[in-house]
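Supplementary Note 2. Why include the ligand at all?

Several targets in our set were suspected to adopt different conformations when bound, so apo predictions alone were not considered sufficient. For every target with a known small-molecule partner we therefore ran a joint prediction. The input for iron/sulfur cluster is given below.
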Amino acid sequence: MERRNTKDIVVGSLHLGSAYPVAIQTMWSSPLALLADNDQFEQMLTTLRTYATMGCSVIRFSYPNRDEKAIFTRICKESPLPVVADIHFDWKLAMEALACGAHKVRINPGNIGSKWKVEEIVRCGADHNSAIRIGLNGGSLPHALRQGDHAEGMVSTALTYLDWFEKWGFYNTVVSLKDTDPDVTYRAYRDIATKMDYPLHLGVTEAGGIISAVTRSTWVLGRLLADGIGDTLRISITDDNEYEIAAGREILRTVGREQGGVRLISCPRCGRASFDSQAFLKKIQNRLLQVPADVTVAIMGCQVNGPGEALHADVAITGIGNRIYFYEKGILQQEVTAETAEEVLFARLKELSHAQ
Ligand code: SF4
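The joint prediction is reproduced in token form.
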């Protein structure tokens, strides 16, 4: 499965493009003003470090007004992840975010206003060695194009903007074409992938809560990634960012775009369960995502499928009768309890991570 060949784009310490892994992004969901409090700021940095260990490579912040300049400058300096500023409407805010140290700004040139304002942003991006994402959205196309096929409209509009950027000597560009209709989004990305060689940021906009967002995103992004299209992605979910990162990794692993980390086998739990696999998994799933070892972990409720799945897994926790056991490569290691299972499992996963 070949990746589509793209230019190499630099976003702070990160490279985007076909020569590099597909990068997962998420977006900070609280107002910047809250980070004026030093404890909250430190907590935010800790959270970003956790995101990084979960597999996230880029963090995006809304930069809605200039009151946040000092906070945003501090974020750009101290963030463990490259920082993207999300800008709408106000070209001066984009310039300011770049001056604060943003490694990339996301703009929709269509809502910035005049072409000269877009040019100011692009030239400022070049001065700061920053990247720019041309982030188009089917709902905000120019009025004439909004009546027709959004996929065609987004592709032709993006190509026009790329042409402007190149005429101004700017090439550190990423493109996204999102629509609430998954089919429109898929067709737009497929089409533009054959017409230019800039990296593509994949996503389905306003995709909803976990179930609808993951389903729609998998349907669109899974097929694009399997076609070799896509260099960075965000799974937009109206829920915690950890789900966005986890969903991104699962999609990348499922289509074979990412190796390593935990592959999980778990039973849904039913009336036979002597071990509450569902509650246990809920408790440990974010921790599992931070395990770098390339391992298969099985979490099973009872003897019907527990020992069988333990045979295929590197490590397994399964209920059997009234008891709970820890297995390694199908061999029973020790009995555990609902309270000690997490500790035993992660102690072994830590050893396996060090050994690999
Ligand atoms: Fe039910 Fe046991 Fe199968 Fe889990 S492994 S779904 S508890 S029968």
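The chain has a mean pLDDT of 94. Residues 311 and 330 are 4 Å apart (CA to CA). Comparable summaries for the other entries are listed in the accompanying table.
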